[in-house]
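I hope you will forgive my troubling you with a question about protein structure. I set the record out below, with my sincere thanks for your time.
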Amino acid sequence: MGAASKRAKRIRQAAEFDMKRLEARLRMPRDGRTALDAWSLEQIFIARDEQMLGQFVLPSRMAEMMRTDDALAVAHWNRLAPQRAIPVKIESAGGARGDSIANEADALFGPNGVGIHADTLADIHACLVDHGVAFGCIDATPREDGSRVDMELRYWPIEYVRWDPVFRLFKARADPNTVQPGDLPQTDLNPGGFDSSGVEYGFVGGFWIPVVHGDGRWVIFKKHDLEPFRKEAAILPAALVWARHAFGNRDWAKGSKAHGSAKVVGELPQGVPLQNGDGSLSNEAAAFVELLRSIATEDSPAGIRPAGSKTEFLTNNSTAWQVWQQLVMNAERAAARIYLGTDGTLGTQANAPGVDVDALFGVAATRVSGDLECLQRGIDTGLIEPWTAINFGDSRLAPKRKYLIPNKDQQAVDDDFAKRNDAFMKALVDAKQAGIQLNPVYIAELATKYRVLVPAIDAMAPATAPAPSK
């Protein structure tokens, strides 16, 4: 039989990359960022619709404001936490040369690498969760001796990106002074020219240039091939959860103020005038009003009420707070489910199905694995493969940057086997001590019972006969 065929892989060549273009650092336009201080329900719907269209200015502003809400902020932080805590390693492609390349890559892209920073990945991961897609821009720096080209990944904010539905690609808005000829592809991708539209959002200036993953300049992080911003963007379902939670808390706070602010009403004795002839309060009424004010505050612990007068406290006995409580709690559970895949972080719920103790205070393993695999795939194909091709001629021996994700299912299988194997070995020892002949048939049957591998025994030592009694 012939050797097994290798998995198909795109090989990048050094000739693909324009180093003059990559050496020039691309920058975002220097325009002011506008923010909405207060969001209405109508504005939330508009921002959500623009997210669906791949226009990210308003959605990025909304995502920032959503993180000021306690329920959404905590769920968002928990979603990002595993990426910060799970270790990474650079895995060699094999062979002596592959190991040498991996050692160099470790200095740039490893756990303590200077080409990928933890804060950069945190921003990219946050954008990926919120919008379903995130973008990184690469700074290429040739060494003074010309031996290598070092590459550093930077986060490119999504507000400077939009989706072109005609050519079905992303375009980034960049500072015209930093755009290179290599950033301006064939004009059929830009039939309207590199416009500076955007006045409606408060920004002007900048060229819209295509974003091409893996071209040595750009890295696109996404979980879906086409229009990922419509399919797994957390802000799409979370936008209305934010409105429900924020507005519910606002109304609950107003109701709390009404419940906690009792009103004092007084009644003067019959015949005592309330007003003077000019319409002003009479002396008796003015003195009584001042008494009521002192009763409503903690400043005056005592007062004298005129004979025949009455005082009464009016309190809010409404039970509407129960509605607000249910709205707020429902929104908090929904936020946890959207971002974490489970609402276990909120504690056990009455009559709820069982929740694994590991998932009770964390994130669903599928969410964590999906995020990390997306980051890993983007870095490997968009950053490390171009770096390998530029520095070593092609990307055949490009290493991989892998997250060391614990496999709980496999660990459970391994632990179960270890327990059964220990029980099997103990059973052999007990049988031998009891004087039972450990022949291959007996051992094989015992191994089948414990569901372990049959040990290979070259020679069977005869069982030791018990010593004769004296």
In short: The longest strand covers residues 133-142.
